[in-house]
Amino acid sequence: MRILTIDTSAIASAAVLDFDPLDLVRTTELVANFATDDTRSHAEVLAPGVKSLFTDPVVEGPALDAIVVGTGPGPFTGLRSGIAMARTLSFTWAVPLYGMMSLDALAQQVFDTPARRDGRAVGPLAMNDFVVATDARRKEVYWAKYNAGAHLIDGPHVGPAEEIFGVQVFGAGAGLYQDVLESNGCSVHPTFAHAQPTAFELARAAARRIAGAGSLEAAGFLQSTPLYLRESDAKVPGPRKRAL
Amino acid sequence: MNHTQPLILGIESSCDETGVGLVRGTTLLTNTVSSSMEEHIRFGGVIPEIASRAHLDAFVPTLQQALVDAGVSLDDVDAFAVTSGPGLAGALMVGVSAAKALALATGKPLYAINHLVAHVGVALLDESIAAVNDDGGLPENLGALLVSGGHTEILRVRSIASGVELLGATIDDAAGEAFDKVARLLGLHYPGGPAIDRLAKEGNAKAIRFPRGLTMPKYMGTPEAPGPHRYDFSFSGLKTAVARCVEGYEARGEDIPVADIAASFQEAVLDVITAKAVLACKEQGITTLLLGGGVAANSRLRVLAQQRCAAAGIMLLVPKMSLCTDNGAMVAALGAQLVMNGVVPSELSFAPDSSMPVTSISL
Q1: Is A234–B49 a contact, with Cβ atoms under 8 angstroms apart?
Q2: CA-based nearest residue to A223, from A95, A70, A105, A114
Q3: Who is most buried in A241, B2, B132, B136, counting CB within 10 A?
Q4: Is the pLDDT confidence value at B69 over 70?
């Protein structure tokens, strides 16, 4: 099975992953991968990035089994660029489209990262429930809570980091508000203090979900509806101010 | 690719209309538009974030509908064209991302085009105004007056594919924006243009003398020594003058003569627009003037523009309304002109430009 994933909830990224759902461990192969460092160039780099994943997208695109797009939460304009791209590719290639919460990509990455002592793996990084947080701008974070098996148990939310208590927190949102989180009894792991959701990790999380469910259709993916979590700032205007 | 009669799919998302149009050469196949206007009514104007969200959800269904209506498939399309500016940044981004996806998924060229020049190119699609000359192009000595909620511009069009020049523009509010704001002052509903047009018919346009922006000699200068804003517009002072006028009636405890105010305000806007457009035509050797933008629907603008153009010996072209307002067909029409003129397509790495200058016809 071959899937294309796109995530623009923070950085812009895309990946093509090939795997056999019956034997994920031995068959998973990252065919191609693209990711930016910054979070503000989606409009320019996303399309060339997706194109670079293929030798000939016109032929290889329609042969994909699925497209999975990160549905955020994330800053609106960037998030929409990825979803608009994914929806249009899905329509043009007639390939089914699924959505997945972008924070799941980071949770998957935490789950896959072993804790190390003296260079040796000594069990999982997150032994208990943990939180994944990304930058929501405006002094807030997007966050969700997962159990140690990286299954979502609460969220997604948007709010100040002050709302998160007593857990390990992973992701760029944790690094930004480390002091606040630590005073709330949270710990921030240094290797994840700048981590962003990526299409590569989203693809791995999707593959794991497909393998667990036995099929794409049964994997319980979301639709591609963006998780904005905030309304537009527009206010219905009040009565006119009078100057006389 | 077919370079003589190319089949172009055009995408528009610069404001609140999601448009997909299909054009073959200068023949309109379909013009499918989905508008989020209803969602903006309670705010009294277009809210960019709400418009952007609506574009995302409307795009694929609008595309699908356009292809069905035209009876073509994406395989038949020779190239894509998309509005890359000017417009609302977040709204542009949706159409641009989708257009890039179409180009990369099909391996076909994409043209990132200027919204304002597309408003000119659309004239080629309307057979009833016979804007197409014998060579299949636009008339010689062509000018355009674009009046909408986001734009108020006078353009000179030397060549639709390579030479468009800005002669004048609003320095603050667009004319349509002024209609919306004054409509609110008068307790009318958004969109303000149709509401004021309707009410003004019952009022006296000479009842109140509202200011004509940027018409004083220090701004106008002379033909030999033009002032700094000879062909430019300003409507924010007019809007304030209407507000003061309304407040004056309220302070005196008098009934507000809304119809007279609507008619007088509308006359002030349209008097300046038509006078300056005709002045620009006369001084710049423009013999055909094309009207575009949503305010072209205003009945008084049509009458006044027709009278003044006729008196000055200028031919006025007004495309049908579905082509005057924002739409994808105009984007496709300009895209077709670029293909026919051998213009190089855009790279996939272009960025939308919310203030794209009119001299930049494509990126």
Answers
A1: yes
A2: A70
A3: B132
A4: yes
